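for the recovery benchmark. tokens below, seq after
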């Protein structure tokens, strides 16, 4: 397979695995925690909209106004002048993140009626409770009147979950619990704002769990934009003329908790059920000549009603990032000479009212977020509600990518990383990957900072990078291993196994590699090769010689290729035309390796004989020579061409011994060094020879067969030849000639005997000194 195709496969695997990890991480909230935490931390605090102000019911206000620590238990009569002051200051919307439950003390007897004092106590207690209930009711009426007069107050309802069992099945139901009835009726809007007990990162614009009710930030924004309501309805009517009847067509008819919520839901349903409506409204808005501020408000309104209805909060910073005013300061008289009082510009602002703490110890309404402080201070519920409102106002929540685009980015990023890591070496792919990661992260951070768009980070920048490099390294390792195996297999045709293993570990050592070992060299030469090469077609000759070498190499290398075979284990070090050089090498003098060489030589003779029977028209009779001793293994050649082969006297001598076969008319000759300590073979000594180019004579033997396979004639031949050779050494030329001649007559034409007959005839008239040892000098190879 082409490398590019493999790289594309690696990239595809990285992309697909990246998608799998992405959706797993999303399901378990890992991406949200890691990605958003990193992006928010890198971005830091950002400017909150000046249109949003939080009035904090804090510890200072509790102390100064002498109220309970729980804001929901405060005297509600306080909220009436509080609202009046906000209205006088020009607040466009007032949002209470407080639940106004019904305050009512029950009447009952605490002590036995038989006791007179107890009766008086019960009477006094019940009268007190009655007065308290009347006071609470009066306080509710005062607050209700202030709410009605303001006309822009939104209250918070509760979202209660209840679990019931039916036929063994647990059923969870969710119900809205509105505030006190009179407050609900006179408020401009009522809505819940549920938050999780654990990490707060999302909110609902419309909560399906409560019969698809709008959340508090949504009704707050619709209330804040009442002045633009008529223009908004005109845009909606142009885009969708069939407006539902329950939808008020002017802002004067929308105020009132029931009608307000119904209107908000009606608008949401029109846009949800007709997705093109919002697009038409935005297009129409672009051509209208409106004030920029009005244009932005209307765009934010349109986007508020669009899905998704569960959105990520785009936090502005740690607690008190929004402009925050203590509750008690709003109650201060307008004419009081206090410099702080004049600093609060509330005109056309939306006011969120709720519990805000300065200390984590006294915090009751805290939610963990990425901006929770190290001391344990979390964002309060009212701050999160203000954050959601501000996100709607700026039309800048944290936006996730469309699933198609998200998947495409993850897959293509993985594809690019996979191709890069597999196609190029690590020295190139690693720095390029670092650059790509930096570019990706820079773009992701820029998009998040300027538009709130959340690009995935943890998977593409860590998981997929690790996957791309890991998969590439593993596949490259497998590929290199396969190539190394192929190379080693190929090298083993030319080099010894131990050398191949060394080169596989360090190829640079080839030129300097050299070692001295003990070994046996086997040299072969095929007769008639020259004449065959002249007569045969080159392709036919190549095919013939390959089959021939197949026979020789099998005998040399393959141990146990036959059940009774004791040879093999050698290395073919050189093939040249019709000759082969093989070696059996060990670290020290070893009988077993020499035995294997002898067995291999005998097997070559047998297998070549069979080969020649099959190829009778093109036979290749083979001569073999063996010699043992110290061998130098090393690289031979120059920079442009190196060969690894055995060199030294042993190699040359083995070749000379092989050449001696031509004169002796034999097939397998070996030196006495090969046979030292071995008695498994039938051999006959052929005498001492001083071979061409040598200064020291060596004793040559003919290797006949394994001694257990020897016939009586072969044994007798060796015996008679030994006797004749002794006569030759004693210079008894006539007797020696007679003895060698008798061998030829009795056992047929015998090459060594014929060689000595000719030699004795030449020496017959010569006179040698007594020190003559019968060494035969060979002047030719």
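predicted aa per position
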């Amino acid at each position: 397979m082409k490398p590019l195709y493999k790289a594309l496969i690696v990239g595809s695997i990285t992309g697909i695995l990246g998608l799998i990890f992405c959706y797993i991480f999303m399901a378990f909230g890992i991406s949200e925690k890691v990605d958003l935490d990193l992006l928010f931390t890198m971005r830091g605090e950002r400017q909150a909209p000046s249109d949003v102000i939080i009035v904090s019911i804090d510890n200072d206000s509790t102390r100064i106004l002498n109220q309970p620590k729980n804001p929901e238990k405060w005297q509600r009569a306080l909220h009436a002048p509080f609202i009046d002051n906000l209205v006088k200051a020009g607040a466009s919307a007032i949002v209470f993140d407080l639940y106004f439950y019904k305050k009512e003390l029950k009447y009952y007897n605490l002590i036995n009626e038989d006791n007179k004092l107890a009766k008086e106590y019960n009477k006094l207690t019940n009268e007190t409770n009655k007065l308290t209930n009347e006071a609470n009711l009066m306080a509710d009426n005062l607050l209700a009147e202030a709410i009605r007069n303001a006309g822009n107050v939104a209250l918070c309802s509760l979202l209660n979950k209840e679990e019931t069992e039916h036929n063994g099945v647990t059923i969870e139901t969710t119900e809205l619990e509105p505030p006190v009835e009179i407050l609900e009726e006179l408020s401009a809007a009522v809505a819940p704002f549920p938050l999780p007990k654990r990490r707060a990162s999302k909110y609902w614009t419309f909560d399906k769990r409560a019969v698809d009710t709008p959340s508090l930030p949504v009704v707050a924004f619709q209330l804040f934009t009442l002045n633009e309501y008529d223009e908004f309805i005109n845009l909606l009517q142009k885009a969708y003329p069939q407006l539902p009847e329950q939808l008020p067509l002017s802002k004067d008819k929308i105020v009132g908790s029931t009608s307000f919520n119904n209107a908000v839901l009606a608008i949401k349903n029109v846009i949800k059920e007709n997705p093109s409506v919002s697009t038409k409204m935005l297009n129409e808005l672009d051509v209208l000549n409106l004030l920029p501020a009005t244009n932005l408000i209307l765009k934010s309104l349109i986007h508020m009603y669009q899905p998704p209805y569960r959105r990520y909060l785009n936090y502005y910073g740690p607690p008190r990032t929004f402009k925050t005013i203590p509750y008690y300061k709003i109650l201060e008289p307008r004419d009081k000479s206090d410099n702080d009082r004049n600093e609060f510009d509330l005109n056309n602002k939306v006011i969120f009212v709720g519990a805000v703490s300065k200390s984590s110890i006294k915090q009751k309404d805290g939610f963990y977020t990425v901006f929770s402080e190290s001391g344990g201070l979390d964002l309060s519920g009212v701050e999160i509600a203000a954050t959601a409102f501000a996100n709607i106002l700026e039309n800048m929540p944290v936006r996730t990518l469309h699933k198609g685009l998200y998947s495409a980015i993850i897959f293509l990023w993985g594809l690019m990383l996979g191709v890069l890591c597999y196609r190029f070496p690590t020295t190139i792919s690693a720095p390029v990957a670092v650059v790509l990661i930096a570019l990706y992260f820079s773009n992701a951070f820029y998009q998040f900072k300027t538009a709130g768009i959340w690009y995935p980070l943890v998977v593409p920048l860590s998981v997929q990078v690790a996957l791309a490099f890991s998969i590439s390294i593993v596949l490259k390792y497998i590929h290199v291993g396969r190539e190394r195996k192929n190379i080693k297999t190929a090298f083993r045709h030319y080099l010894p196994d131990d050398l191949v293993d060394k080169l596989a570990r360090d190829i640079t050592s080839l030129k300097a590699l050299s070692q001295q070992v003990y070994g046996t060299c086997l040299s072969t030469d095929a007769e008639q090769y020259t004449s065959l090469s002249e007569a045969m077609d080159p392709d036919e000759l190549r095919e013939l010689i390959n089959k021939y070498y197949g026979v020789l190499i099998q005998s040399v290398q393959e141990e146990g290729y036959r059940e009774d075979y004791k040879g093999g284990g050698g290395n073919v070090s050189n093939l040249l035309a019709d000759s082969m050089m093989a070696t059996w090498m060990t670290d020290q003098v070893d009988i077993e390796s020499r035995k294997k060489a002898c067995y291999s030589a005998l097997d070559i003779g047998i297998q070549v004989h069979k080969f020649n029977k099959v190829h009778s028209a093109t036979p290749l009779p083979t001569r073999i020579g063996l010699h043992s001793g110290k061998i130098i293994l090393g690289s031979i050649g120059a920079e442009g061409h190196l060969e690894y082969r055995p060199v030294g006297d042993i190699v040359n001598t083995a070749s000379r011994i092989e050449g001696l076969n031509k004169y002796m008319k034999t097939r397998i000759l070996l030196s006495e060094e090969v046979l030292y300590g071995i008695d498994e073979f039938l051999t006959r000594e052929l005498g001492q020879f001083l071979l061409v180019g040598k200064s020291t004579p060596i004793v040559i033997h003919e290797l006949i067969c394994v001694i257990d396979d020897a016939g009586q004639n072969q044994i007798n031949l060796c015996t008679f030849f030994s006797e004749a050779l002794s006569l030759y050494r004693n210079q008894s030329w006539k007797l020696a000639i007679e003895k060698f001649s008798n061998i030829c007559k009795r056992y047929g034409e015998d090459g060594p005997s014929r060689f000595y007959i000719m030699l004795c005839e030449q020496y017959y008239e010569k006179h040698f000194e007594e020190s003559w040892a019968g060494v035969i000098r060979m002047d030719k190879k």
